[in-house]
Write a structure and sequence with these properties.
Largest sheet: 5 strands, parallel
Radius of gyration: 18 Å
Strand content: 15-25%
Distance between the termini: 7 Å
Strand order of the largest sheet: 7-2-1-8-9
Amino acid sequence: MGKVAFLFAGQGAQHPGMCADLIESEPAAKAVFDMADAVRPGTTEQCLSGTKEELAQTINTQPCVFAADLACARALVARGVTPDVVAGFSLGEVAALTFAGAYSDEEGFELVCRRAELMADAAEKNPGAMRAVVKLDATTVERLASEAGDAWPVNYNSPLQTVVAGTPEACERLDLLVKEAKGRAMKVAVSGAFHSPFMADAERGLAAYLADGHAPAQPSVTVLANRTGEAYPADEAARVELLSGQVANPVQWVRTLQNMAADGVDTFIEVGPGKTLTGLVSRTLEDVTALPCETVEQLESVLAALSEKGE
């Protein structure tokens, strides 16, 4: 019997009405949103009724997706599903750490709200752009980004999808270089160059926040870090450095998935809105099961699939 991983969705997965039926029918999910409303009034309403444009603003995206991620995970646990290991994509890492007990729900939510503020401020001071480059391997994208100028690979999503962040001008140069290399560069609808050196101010601000009594505790479930693809360490200072530095460094998602698979994970459940991570699993690993879990219907499908596998 293989192991089960929960993958917590990141920015870009948000959409109006996320988790609507789960909130209605799963008390464990509703409890998470009630907590979010107590800390940040209006969060549930924003998730359910906010416009696409409103939800796309980093300051709103991060708290809303965090709540959705955690709600989906808690609904699964309430139905008897517990993961052997977890990881979250970008802001999803805060939800993963919270789920794993490194923070209380309130602490994790407050942290993600602060993270959103810091990243939005950094993006305003250093306007940037991002491109998802497909059909080219990571080494080629690294070379092209270097040739484009102020551009850096920031999300290693799958073997043939790497996201690059940089100045708007560098990203436009990258578009041409990618086309010449027979790849495809797609604009990412974000307000800044996330996970790049442009987020240095956010990294410093987050480090100060974490050092001021908000360091993550040792998780009770293994959490793989975006920066390394390895488990969060026992040393508190190292955990603080990993989490604060995450905003200005690349997300090593391919490495994360490969390490999970090498450790015996064969079932990946995406918790939170959308199914972006489910797709990345399918494009990175073979002979594994990858399932999204945002709606009641998807929750039932996950339970049926696990029952069939005897897990």
